[in-house]
Amino acid sequence: MRVEGDETGIPAGDRLTVAEIHDSIEALSEADIARLMAAARGFSRLCGIDADDLLQEACRRALEGRRTCNRGTALVPFLCGVMKSFMSQENEARKEGFRPTVVMRDGKPVLPDVAADDPSPERSAMSLIDGKATLAEIEASAIGDEKVQLLIEGIYDGMRGADLQELLDVDEKGLAAVRKRLWRVLQGCKSGVPS
């Protein structure tokens, strides 16, 4: 099965060389460039990447040999396919959380005005160091209340709702009561707890 972007299985002689792609790009007519820009603007609305950047990335990938064009394939549809592939990759990366979400303002894509909430590597390292003392203080404050200690362990393990109820062997109201006791423990810690 052939997947888009998979350049295997086609004999090298049946593809344009990078030099031939370069010459074809140089020979594009004004009408071809207009068609490419129209396609880039359409893709831009779907992914939030500037149309010029989409077209430039398509050309770059073709000129680097990362994408190859079969002989007999017109250059405009080939470059449109490369732009579509790039747009799909970027949209998938956004869905997976690897790219910032683009905000459309007045029909133009812009990045958010505020900084990302993602911690920097330095902040993550500091959190590991500073957080250990805070967590140790919370655990020490919970000694003597087995349900609160279990709740803390469950939260560490990413449990929520019904999983925590099962772990603590309580109903919904019982879980709320244990959470309230945990809140009191947190308020009593020296480190303080965010509101």
Provide structural commentary:
This protein is mainly α and 195 residues long. The chain has two domains: 12-110, no CATH class; 121-188. 61% of the residues lie in helices and 3% in strands. It contains eight helices and two strands. It has helices at residues 18-26, 30-47, 51-63, 75-95, 121-141, 146-156, 161-168, 172-188; strands spanning 103-105, 108-110. A two-stranded antiparallel sheet has the order 1-2. Strand 1 and strand 2 (108-110) form a beta hairpin. Helix 6 (146-156) crosses helix 8 (172-188). The longest helix is centred in the middle third of the chain and has 21 residues, at 75-95. Residues 1-10 have low confidence and may be disordered.
Q: Keywords for this structure?
A:
2 strands, 3% strand, single chain, disordered N terminus, elongated, mainly alpha, 195 residues, two-stranded antiparallel ribbon, 2 domains
The biggest beta sheet is recorded as: 2 strands, antiparallel
**Rg (C-alpha, Å):** 28 Å
Mean pLDDT across all residues, rounded?
80
Query: How widely separated are the two ends?
Result: 55 Å
Order of helices and strands: HHHHEEHHHH
Number of helical stretches of at least 4 residues? 8
Number of strands: 2
What portion of the residues fall into strands of 2 or more residues? under 5%
